[in-house]
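Homework help board

Subject: predicted structure for assignment chain

Our instructor gave us this sequence and asked us to write out the predicted structure in token form, then describe one feature. I got the tokens but I'm not sure how to describe them. Can anyone check?
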Amino acid sequence: MLKQFKRDLRDSEHKKHQVKSLLFFAVGVVLFTLVAGFLFRQSPSAHPTGRSDIASDFPAGIWFNTSEPLSLYNQLKGHVVVVLFNDFNTLSDLEDIIGFCELNETFSEESVLCLVVSAGREVSATDSLVAQWQINFPVLADPDSLAMHSFGIRALPGVLLINTTGTVAARYYEDWQNISLEAVIRDLLDQGKATRSLANEKYIP
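My token output:
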């Protein structure tokens, strides 16, 4: 009789432990669902900012070195687009422009377009910058940093690569000159050819 009682007691304790475990698990699932729901509600509904997102288009603004405002989904469709974001407040930024000019020359015959977004500078200051530094590729004046926020650029300088389907391929920041951008761009061109999304003719601004 005593043995049976002990056995029943152990079974009872085991069942209680199982019930507690199930309760804790259920409470955990509910809490996780609530927290996840809250976080998703807090997620920005604006333009995507992560890698492999569909890129936003350029906001309305003043362009230099181009006969018309540029659009990723119009003139630049099917191109690999490389965008340098900078505020050009220091002489060291001149190195970025020089590196970008060299990159532009390298792909002068291919469906690649390099352009600059002058972030946080007045239009007149950007005009002077283009003339003083003899920039010969398209430049967008972005005094309110609208383009910067639209493309999810978090710091300056920043370089954005967009592939031939209008998708963000990569973002680089202050160490971008240490990256082999030429190799990355060639990979994107090969992908464009493989998917038949590469423009047949290069757009000339």
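Reply (TA_rk): Your tokens look well-formed. For the description, you could write something like this. DSSP finds five helices and six strands in the chain. That's the kind of observation they're looking for.
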